[in-house]
Write a structure and sequence with these properties.
Length: 399
């Protein structure tokens, strides 16, 4: 099964590379116009051989018309003669892609389908010398599949197979290994300390809205913290800067209290909108930390310039502080002022780490395997490129 899958993948990679390679070159030597391959049907490509007397003083002009007999008065292209050479032809051919939507032909502006465009190539070496070129025609047509992005499609299939395989493995194997993250292990200690001191814990959202992946990860962590807080019977205050994040946080905390069997302990006012702007948000939270002196502060999400002010204020009150952010510019401030800091992808791994859900664990393991594969391919590709073999670069072309 595995050998068949590997052979199948290698066959597709070879086929895609071969198709891309053969698609780059065309055998004709005259001026030609043809439908641009792998597009949505709004482009025509022009290709013609270069001449020995090309220079910055000479120009190529391409006129367009919908009639073979003209008039050819509209310029579709105007370039220096030593510009726009075709890649991989050693400057022996020019190639240009004409967007038909941008052609100012009034009679077809409302209906651009199945129009046959005629192009006339002119080479002008100076004002007095004009060489009349050839006339070619083409009709733009849309393509269902972009072969230039076949590499992305193959990578997506391979990654999907790895994810499904890892999820299946995680469901079979109990206690799938994940490297210990000290910041997450310290959550119980921080909440235990808050319980012993009889003081609240403060959860601070970052400054991104609900469409940010770091905010989504913060919500997942909030749910686990709220569950522990409900079990310990410790007050939890959650600050927000966006109304949508506030609504989601309220529901998540409420659900956690319900899951812990203590819905009566949930206090809606403890999940609040502190402010709607950056520094008023900082001032409001600094006041809370100074007045109420929470025993544990959690800074989770994406932070900006306010990170050091918040963390420094919390450190001055003596609270245990745990930060988690993927804002790499703010990591130094959290590392120096907090007791534990989750850096970068540890923020995203926290949900799987805390919940031990096979679905999340399998996805996390698949991501690690995929990264290892990509690193291996890059190293192997660098070695091949050093040896003068660069075919593997097509894997990383965006298309």
């Amino acid at each position: 099964m595995n050998k068949t899958l590997v052979i199948y993948i290698l066959f597709i990679l070879t086929l895609s590379y071969t198709s891309l390679t053969f698609g780059m070159g065309r055998g004709k030597s005259d001026f030609e116009a043809f439908d641009t391959p792998n597009d949505s049907g709004n482009s025509i490509s022009l290709r013609w051989p270069s001449s020995p007397d090309e220079s910055t003083n000479a120009e190529y002009i391409v006129f367009v018309s919908t009639n073979k007999n003209g008039p050819f008065e509209i310029e579709a292209l105007h370039i220096k003669s030593n510009d726009m050479y075709e890649e991989g032809t050693d400057s022996s051919y020019h190639i240009a892609h004409i967007e038909t939507n941008n052609l100012l032909i009034t009679e077809i502006s409302n209906n651009n389908d199945n129009i046959n465009y005629f192009f006339k190539l002119v080479k002008r070496s100076n004002i007095d010398s004009v060489n009349i070129g050839m006339i070619e025609s083409a009709t733009p047509k849309g393509n269902w599949f972009n072969k230039l992005r076949l590499n992305n499609f193959i990578i997506m299939i391979i990654f999907s197979i790895i994810v499904l395989g890892c999820i299946k493995h995680a469901k079979k194997v109990q206690g799938l290994f994940i490297r210990k993250i000290k910041g997450l292990d310290a959550i119980d200690d921080a909440l235990g300390r808050a319980t012993e001191m009889g003081k609240p814990a403060l959860f601070v959202h970052g400054l991104n809205d609900m469409d940010s992946i770091s905010t989504i990860a913060a919500i997942n962590i909030l749910g686990k913290i709220a569950l522990r807080v409900a079990e310990y019977d410790t007050p939890l205050k959650v600050s927000n800067i966006y109304p949508i994040v506030l609504s989601v946080s309220q529901e998540v905390v409420k659900e956690s209290y319900l899951e812990a069997g203590r819905p009566d302990a949930y206090i809606a006012d403890n999940v609040f909108l502190a402010a709607s702007e950056q520094f008023p948000y900082v001032v409001a939270l600094s006041g809370i930390m100074t007045r109420e002196k929470p025993a544990a502060n959690f800074f989770v999400g994406y932070f900006y310039a306010e990170s050091l002010i918040l963390a420094e204020t919390g450190a001055a009150t003596g609270a245990i502080q745990i930060a988690a952010t993927d804002a790499f510019t703010q990591l130094p401030f959290f590392i120096t002022t907090c007791d534990y800091t989750l850096m970068g992808e540890e923020l995203y791994a926290a949900s799987a780490y805390l919940s031990r859900d096979p679905l999340l664990l399998g996805s996390l393991r698949a991501q690690d395997i995929t990264k290892a594969i990509i690193i291996g391919v890059i190293v192997f590709g660098a070695f091949l490129a050093t040896c003068g073999v660069d075919f593997i670069t097509f894997l990383f072309k965006p298309g």
